[in-house]
Write a structure and sequence with these properties.
This protein is α/β, with parallel strands linked by helices. It folds into three domains: 245 residues, Beta-Lactamase, CATH 3.30.450; 165 residues, Reverse transcriptase/Diguanylate cyclase domain (Alpha-Beta Plaits); 205 residues, Alpha-Beta Barrel (TIM Barrel), CATH 3.20.20.450. The protein has 22 helices and 25 strands. The chain is flat, with a radius of gyration of 34 Å. The termini are far apart.
Length: 726
């Protein structure tokens, strides 16, 4: 049929050209329509990302400002009264770092008794909220909800506008235990400025509206209500007791402008005419053969999914780059990238989403390197970039940081935004290797070091790293050998109960008696065990030995509660919690006799399965403690939702508690917040009587440190317990 079609137009080349031209015009029209729609959708996606970021910042700024009321609530709940000077000092401290805090008022029995700063607010002193209808409704709403309510922005009598937060304080769970109300007034314009409301949205109309006090109607308080159209991008902001909605819309709408339309049509006409002329003259006999050859070559050299060079093709290009740079004595950089948590993306969203993410990731890499640089996908989520003609390692680091930022921006896939980070290792030619194998091996080592250091990092290879790798392998093997040969020993450090003065608790600490190197500090082998995976075997030994020695103590009539450290890696096996309970049952140890000390990272970044293990263990009676609290995330607000029984304040804060006002304030706030949330607090590193006295004054529950005793062997610790029981 095709041959018949060609015969019809053999003597009518002009008609043939017109048919081809008409078809091309139709295609161009469809393409232009698609391009306009794609451009508009891309603009909406970019605006949505910016809007989500802005919303998160606004929510964070409001949350941070209102923490002053939470801190005051904790103080009131602990003492059932307050000292004016102490409260005024606390508010002033917050105002130094949060200029958006205009003033704070305390109203026991709903009558303002204290307001700071006083200047400009004198008229509010003694105000009874029940007698001010304009404010009483909002106060009643907060009391009914038993939680903080934020309203506004509202017009102030003093002039200007502000957000007003009200927090009812109840002394217990009963409805008639209302102590009073705490009120915070915050400069809305300063808060908006700190959140970056006026940045990054040139050419856009921005508007914000809210619902307060149970109202069903939206009220616009920033920008114009006309911005909230069907085509606007919007997102919501949750504030205490209310809801905000923020919208963004280009001033001229999402459609392409006339200049773009003319440009597209001109290009389309030119391209259509050229293709029509080409179709008129080109002989198509060899097209299929040529296409087949090109397809075969492409499949042999390029990755099918991303279109990047595959390992085979990349090795050829890298060998050529090495020869070229050797000839001219130039440097180049090899970036080895591996996505963080890519397996979790596949498991959570499916492999089709993972494939789309790989394609977008690869496309973004191509957009952020030069045209003559090399990019390849060499394995599932592993990529290599060769940046040619690098002047120095510093230049490579700058480009790596830029690439890290760009690749870390969210990806829009199937109507949702996914964020993914990556770990990046860098090797430099010729310093880190003269051959392809050596360069790739060293870049790979640097990448895995970045993974071990916490992911989402950039690590350069060096000789020290090579030595470190060899040392880690040796330590790993020595640890496993030491467990078999009985080289490890548990020491015990007592923990004092400040209320009773007794020592009902202790912490089990591992020591390594190496036959050649002598006593090795845990600071030298625990991090290595964490990185190599030996921590799992080491942790199992610690638990078994701890249960064994605890059983011996019980046989001697000694009752003690023992804390022992648990690593994040130890929670990864699916049957970890059941195996641990089997160990306790084997030695006849009750779960309530142990406390598992974990890091904040396990709670903040842990997978759902790891948190499920913690819940199951707590349900069986094992208590959990956050070790070295204050040095990691220290997100006190998260403690409400996580399974925690104890907090251990890191020794670095206790060390200077007598001379450093900031450390002293932080320790006191942690203790008070722990008491408010029903969490016991243990202070580590207590070495002086004055430190002990101050911690007693703050209401700390337990202390641990050299003042009570250094970590000691089992026999010595048992003698100490026997003396204490007499």
């Amino acid at each position: 049929m095709f041959k018949h079609f060609l015969l019809i137009f053999t003597n009518r080349p002009s008609a043939f050209a017109l048919v081809i031209l008409g078809l091309l015009f139709s295609i161009v029209g469809l393409f232009i329509q698609y391009e306009f729609e794609r451009t508009a959708e891309k603009a909406k996606q970019d605006a949505q990302i910016k809007l989500l970021t802005l919303a998160a910042r606004l929510e964070g700024e409001i949350h941070t400002d209102t923490m002053v009321l939470r801190a005051l609530e904790a103080t009131i709940l602990l003492h059932d009264h307050y000292d004016h000077a102490e409260i005024t000092s606390m508010i002033s401290h917050y105002q130094k770092t949060r200029p958006s805090i205009r003033h704070v008022a305390l109203a026991p029995d709903l009558k303002i008794d204290l307001i700071h700063p006083m200047k400009g607010n004198e008229a509010a002193m003694g105000l009874d909220y029940r007698k001010v209808p304009a404010q009483w409704a909002a106060v009643q709403k907060a009391i009914e909800n038993r939680d903080m309510m934020v309203v506004g922005p509202i017009n102030l009598v003093q002039g200007g506008t502000a957000l007003v937060a009200r927090l009812p304080v109840f002394l217990n769970d009963s409805s008639d235990s209302l102590w009073g109300i705490l009120t915070g007034v915050f400069h809305d314009q300063i808060l908006f400025e700190r959140a970056g409301l006026n940045k990054g949205f040139d050419g856009f109309d921005i508007a914000i509206r809210n619902k307060n006090n149970g109202s069903q109607d939206w009220k616009v308080f920033y920008g114009s209500g006309s911005t909230f159209t069907e085509n606007a991008v919007t997102t919501r902001i949750t504030v205490p007791g209310g809801e905000w909605q923020i919208a963004a819309m280009p001033s001229g709408g999402w459609q392409a402008n006339d200049e773009q339309a003319i440009k597209f049509w001109l290009i389309g006409i030119v391209v259509s005419v050229l293709f029509s002329l080409a179709a008129y003259f080109i002989v198509t006999n060899y097209r299929e053969k040529l296409l087949a050859i090109q397809t075969a070559n492409h499949r042999a050299n390029y990755d099918v999914l991303t279109g990047l060079s595959n390992r085979y093709h990349f090795s050829q290009l890298l060998d050529q780059a090495i020869q070229d740079h050797q000839r001219y004595q130039h440097q180049f950089a090899v970036f080895y990238l591996d996505m963080d948590y890519f397996k979790e993306v596949n498991d959570e969203w499916g492999h089709h989403v993972g494939d789309e993410l790989l394609c977008l990731f690869a496309e973004r890499m191509k957009q952020n390197v030069r045209s003559d640089d090399l990019i390849a996908r060499i394995a599932g989520d592993e990529f290599i970039i060769v940046l040619k003609n690098m002047g120095s390692g510093a230049e490579s680091e700058i480009l790596a940081e830029k690439l890290k930022k760009e690749l870390g921006e969210p990806y829009y896939i199937n109507g949702q935004y996914l964020s993914v980070t990556h770990s990046l290792g860098v090797a430099m030619f010729p310093d880190d290797g003269l051959t392809m194998d050596m360069l790739l091996q060293n870049a790979d080592r640097a990448m895995y070091q970045a993974k071990r250091d916490g992911k989402n990092r950039i690590t350069f290879f060096n000789n020290e790293l090579n030595k470190e790798v060899q040392r880690h392998v040796q330590v790993h093997n020595d640890i496993l050998k030491g467990i078999i040969e009985g080289q490890f020993e548990l020491f015990f450090q007592p923990i004092m109960d400040l209320n009773s003065g007794g020592m009902p608790k202790c912490e089990a600490l591992i020591r390594w008696n190496h036959p050649e190197k002598g006593l090795i500090s845990p600071f030298h082998f625990i991090p290595v065990a964490e990185q190599t995976g030996a921590i799992v075997a080491l942790g199992n030994w610690v638990l078994e030995e701890c249960c064994h020695l605890l059983s011996r103590m019980k046989d001697q009539g000694l009752e003690i509660n023992i804390s022992l450290n648990r690593s994040v890696a130890e929670f990864q096996p699916n049957d970890a919690d059941s195996n641990w309970m089997d160990v306790l049952n084997h030695f006849g140890i009750g779960p309530e006799e142990l406390v598992f000390e974990i890091t904040e990272s396990l709670l903040m970044d842990g997978a759902e399965s790891q948190l499920d293990k913690i819940h199951r263990l707590r349900d069986k009676g094992i208590a959990f403690s956050i070790d070295d609290f204050g040095t990691g995330y220290s997100a006190i607000n998260y403690l409400r939702n996580y399974p925690v029984d104890y907090l251990k304040i890191d020794r670095s804060f206790i060390k200077d508690i007598l001379v450093d006002d900031q450390d002293r304030t932080l320790v006191e706030v942690i203790i008070k917040m722990g008491q408010t949330l029903g969490i016991k607090v243990v202070a580590e590193g207590v070495e002086e009587e004055a430190q002990l006295d101050m911690l007693k004054q703050f209401g700390c529950d337990y202390v641990q440190g050299y003042l009570l005793g250094k970590p000691m062997p089992y026999d010595q610790f048992v003698e100490l317990l026997k003396l204490g029981s007499k």
